[in-house]
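Minutes, project huddle
Topic: does the predicted pose make sense with fe (iii) ion bound?
PN asked that the exact inputs be recorded in the minutes so nobody has to dig through chat later. Recorded below.
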Amino acid sequence: MASQQPLKKLDEWEDDLLRRYPNPELPENAPSFRNYKETVPDRVREFYRLNHRNQSVEFGRRKREEYLGRSKATMSVWEALELLDTLVDDSDPDTELSQIQHCLQTAEAIRSDGHPRWFVLTGLIHDLGKILCLWNEPQWAVTGDTFPVGCAFSEKIVFAEFFKDNPDSQNPSYQSETGIYQPGIGLDNVMISWGHDEYLYQVVRDHLPLPAAAMIRYHSFYPWHQESAYQILMNDHDREMLRWVRAFQPYDLYSKSQSPPDVERLKPYYSELIDEFFPRVLAW
Ligand code: FE
Ligand code: FE
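Predicted holo structure (tokens), as shared on screen:
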């Protein structure tokens, strides 16, 4: 399966996001700006090639059947965080943050800006869907920019040229602007490419306010929240949620450069926050 896992580590996709969307608040000589002019590593290119070739309507249906409605594991939110940390053990211990540290940094940045408790909690849990790796999903089915399937692939999606190898590109009913959907149908009625966003949304949706659910479900949908593609599919609810998803994005992408959080010190606060919204265990 080596060819299915081109990235050295799962977070190389986030590194590429930083190259494409450098922190606007950083001076131009800061590291994320320096990366901007570098070319995309072949590993990342190969990752997008596999992602765009394989994320089809048929694949999305199969994964939903496989994961939704029948759970594969039962565990608490904190247990899932700890599992993610061991599972996606892909960071360089000297220079990079572990998964749990990324989750805590995102949450801490949201907390220090005085946002509501559900928003802080959303920061903490937003990447828990990456435990899909536990069930040996290839990288391209866990992470990467997400996009709708069942309608034309937007030119605004990174490496859109790779969609020529997607079987849906040969299906005329999937290739008009709205494809199998009605204009204004609302994103919640659109099948988005499968990955950690959709999976986690399905696990936690009943326990969180709507803006939190949208932040989780669409945080990797960069073609929508940063490139303004797929407006034709949006309804009024999406227009309201877009504001929240955009508010979340800088915390996810730009909270990484700060000093690593002290997991043991923060655990009591976050355990209480988790208990406020979630039952003791969830079905994953
Ligand atoms: Fe994520
Ligand atoms: Fe993240």
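Observations noted during the meeting:
- Residues 102, 126-127, 252 surround fe (iii) ion (ligand 2) (CB under 6 Å).
- The mean pLDDT is 92.
No decisions taken; revisit at the next huddle.
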